[in-house]
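testing teh design pipeline on a random one, pls ignore if ur not involved
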């Protein structure tokens, strides 16, 4: 459900001393056996999310990023009149 590489944004401040504020974005590292989502936050913190307790939203998943990259490549080739460099 939250594969490594998934981008997440925190929607409310987490109740701890780790300094992860509302609006902070980060990347999923892994989900452990009990469902904690281990994160690498863009502010350098490493605090995990608990889906039943923390309020967050998914910004992108690794598959979406690959698809966007492929679409970008297609646009570039069309921009060159179909010629490749």
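output:
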């Amino acid at each position: 459900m939250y594969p490594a590489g998934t981008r997440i944004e925190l929607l409310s401040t987490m109740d701890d001393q780790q300094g992860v504020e509302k609006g902070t974005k980060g990347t999923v590292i892994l989900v452990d056996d009990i469902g904690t989502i281990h994160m690498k936050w863009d502010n350098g913190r490493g605090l995990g999310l608990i889906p039943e307790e923390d309020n967050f939203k998914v910004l992108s998943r690794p598959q979406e990023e690959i698809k966007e990259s492929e679409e970008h490549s297609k646009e570039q080739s069309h921009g060159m009149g179909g010629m490749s460099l």
